[in-house]
Amino acid sequence: MSDLRQLLHRTADHVAAYREAAAEAPVATDVDLARLRADLGGPLETAGRPAAEVVERLVAAAAPGLVTTTGPRYFGFVTGGALDAATCADMLAAGWDQAAFNAVLSPAAAVAEEVAGGWLKELLGLPATASFGFVTGGQAANTVGLAAARHAVLARAGWDVEKGGLGGAPALRVVAGEERHATIDRSLRLLGIGTDALRLAAAGSNGGIEVGALREVLAEDPDRPTIVCLQAGNVNTGACDSLGAACGVARRHGGPTWVHVDGAFGLWAAANPASRAQVAGIELADSWATDGHKWLNVPYDSGYVFCAEPEAHAAAMSLTAAYLVGQGDGTVRAPSAYVTESSRRARGFATWAALQELGRDGVAALVERCCRLARRFAAALGDVEGVTIANEVVLNQVLVDFGGAARTDRVIAAVQAGGTCWMGGTTWRGRRLMRISVSNWSTCEADVDRSVAAIRQALGAA
Ligand SMILES: *Cc1c(COP(=O)(O)O)cnc(C)c1O
After folding, report:
1. Closest Cα to atom 5, ligand 1: which residue?
2. By C-alpha distance, which of 275, 355, 268 is closest to 83?
3. Beta bridge partner(s), residue 432
């Protein structure tokens, strides 16, 4: 065997060993940062080392600082874990070392994106004619969607923002729910729109936008070019805005209007018949952002942006001129014309593989299972004396109050230290809460039951 082949096998063995152990390993261990820094650090040496030695050193030094987010009992943030085929496809993408800039640099990467993008639109119930970009995550998807929005509403107001910039442009307004995700604000900063352009509509009891409040905010300035940001999947409660009603209200607004939906994880409700009603009317928006690396369980970094007006998408994003979408090959979509990167990794392979591994039914079952397990958490914990479930569990998110902020923080700390499972804390509407997100493909009922037992134990000691 060649040295390289041997090294690749050994590396694959490291990955396999880690993933095999993930279901039973402590989810998070006490991290000794000083040791991590010592083992990974020191001055950059003058001479290089053999590749095999470098890999072994990396595995030994990094292992104590790895968090088993890929395992079945990690319920922090909204993460998901990587499916087997998607992980291997990502390893292939690295091994093949493809640049997914255009079809000349990698026809395989370009066509895999073309195909997987079509599958995604079908699964999510988006218009078949929508354009799409494979981006690094929800943040990038929001930025690209809002760039297309900025182009379209200003074009309708007679302004070419790609040429003239925002100085001297008609003033834009962005109407969003008060419980929008923080990445919306960062996208507005990046796009030069600025957060002063935000006008906020109140959220209802479970965190979704109040459609009546949206109507009132829009009416405050009826002619202003306006971007409406809706949300599918409140990061605390899982609630989705009433997309159909909200889009209807936005459509009746007088000035140029664009509706963007941030559905980083909640958009996947559309892929499961039992949860599809949560996002009814989804197809009425103009652009959509979602993640692959959350609920689809694709490795990082993987997000998708879709746009009902491909011309607006390409005008905002293409590297050359808006009309040169094919970039040298009119028959194959150029991946780089719909994202912010030029040279980029071939992340489409992992999405292609995840969708093949699951199939249409498997995606629906994954979403349904996570929702069912979230309800199982809520039922089991809600039965415990002194414990309250703080949200209506409509999707995969559960918020738990253990009887006040101090006690809740003690329970969270004890659960995290215990290593059986990992849940984070959040503050929602002034309440300190444990947040549980069920989004991993490998989580099953036994994982929930073990985690509930660990929480009950922590509660007893708190
Ligand atoms: C996670 C999340 C984002 C950001 O997505 P990244 O992939 O972390 O960039 C945006 N919006 C919502 C609602 C999210 O849950």
Report:
1. 138
2. 355
3. 427
Ligand 1: centre distance to CA 306 (Å): 15
Is the C-beta atom of 298 inside 6 A of ligand 1? no
Is the CB of residue 434 less than 8 Å from the CB of residue 425? yes
Q: What are the structural domains of the chain?
A: 90-353 (3.40.640.10)
Distance from residue 38's CA to the centre of ligand 1 (Å): 33
Chain segment 307-356, per-residue pLDDT in tens: 999 999 999 999 875 444 444 455 788 999 999 999 999 999 999 999 99
User: Rounded to an integer, what distance in angstroms lies between the CA atom of residue 238 and that of residue 208?
Assistant: 9
Question: Ligand 1 centre from 233 Cα, in Å?
Answer: 10
Whether the model pTM is above 0.90: yes
- Report whether residue 139 contacts ligand 1, using a CB cutoff of 6 Å: yes
Taking CA atoms only, the protein residue closest to ligand 1 atom 10 is: 138
Any atom of ligand 1 within 6 Å of the Cβ of 397:
no
The whole-angstrom separation of Cα 148 and Cα 339 is: 11
pLDDT of residue 331: 75
Residue 97: exposure state from Cβ atoms within 10 A (0-12, 13-18, ≥19): exposed
Atom of ligand 1 nearest to the CA of 142: 10
User: What does the pLDDT read at residue 30?
Assistant: 85
Query: Using CA atoms, how far apart are residues 145 and 132, in angstroms rounded to an integer?
Result: 10
| Residues 85-127 pLDDT 10s | 999 999 999 999 999 999 999 999 999 999 999 999 999 999 9
- Decide: 79 in ligand 1 pocket, CB within 6 A: no
Q: In the structure encoding, which two tokens stand for residue 308, read together?
A: 């009902």
Confidence of residue 240 (pLDDT cuts 50, 70, 90): very high
How does pLDDT run across 46-80, given as a tens digit for each residue?
999 999 999 999 999 999 999 999 999 999 999 99
Q: Is 138 in the pocket of ligand 1 (CB under 6 A)?
A: yes
Would the CB of 238 count as within 6 Å of ligand 1? Answer: no
